[in-house]
Amino acid sequence: MQDQQRDEPRRISYTPPVPDGPDRPWTRGRRTRWWLVLLADAVSVALIACFAAASMHDLSRVAGLLAGGAGAVVVGWAVTWLVRRPHDHLEVIWPDGSLVSGVVWALWTGLCVWLTPVGTVGGEGQAASFAAMLAAFVVVFLGGWRSLYGYVKAHDSLVPKGIQRRLDAQSHRDR
User: What distance lies between CA 82 and its chain's CA centroid?
Assistant: First the structure.
């Protein structure tokens, strides 16, 4: 009976860890990928400024929105970096990316409402609708690229390459 068990090849199986939980294999042992965060957030702020100005039917506001957004995102990075040290990874969606997005939204909304002449943003209901519109754009663009990045990196690192080779060999052997 025992000789029979030794002759049969052992089956292996693998259940990957939760991809975007506390154990993110692609963030282990390294710092924030600043080149990615700077580029992606800069593009996101530019898109948000263009879409926000277009939704207000006033494209002359793009430059002001862009300046406010650029300042807000730099403050968002700084706040998140200070709060989350030494485990900061600004390219992941939770908790670092959400903290960046929340600070950006709050500061950008505050700047726009405070610095804009009365009647354009700041009248009755206009500030609230502007804040809601800006929140939607911030979630879509700043949260969106982080979510897609996490999905792609998780997909690439869910099953370690050595285990994947063994699983492939096992399935080929079973055919």
Answer: 18
For residue 36, how many other CB atoms are within 10 A of its CB?
14
Residue pLDDT tens, the chain, 175 long: 555 556 666 777 655 554 445 555 556 556 667 777 888 889 999 999 999 888 888 888 889 899 999 999 999 888 988 888 777 777 777 888 888 899 999 999 988 878 766 455 545 567 788 888 899 999 999 888 888 877 777 666 666 667 777 777 877 777 7
Please tell me the distance from the alpha carbon of residue 71 to that of residue 62, in angstroms, as a whole number.
Answer: 14
Helix (H) / strand (E) containing 55: helix 34-55
pTM of model > 0.70: no
Question: How many CB atoms within 10 Å of residue 127?
Answer: 17
Neighbours of 10 (CB within 10 A): 7
Give the Cα separation of 159 and 14 in Å (integer).
8
In this structure, the dihedral spanned by the alpha carbons of residues 142, 148, 151 and 156, taken in order and rounded to 10 degrees, is: -120
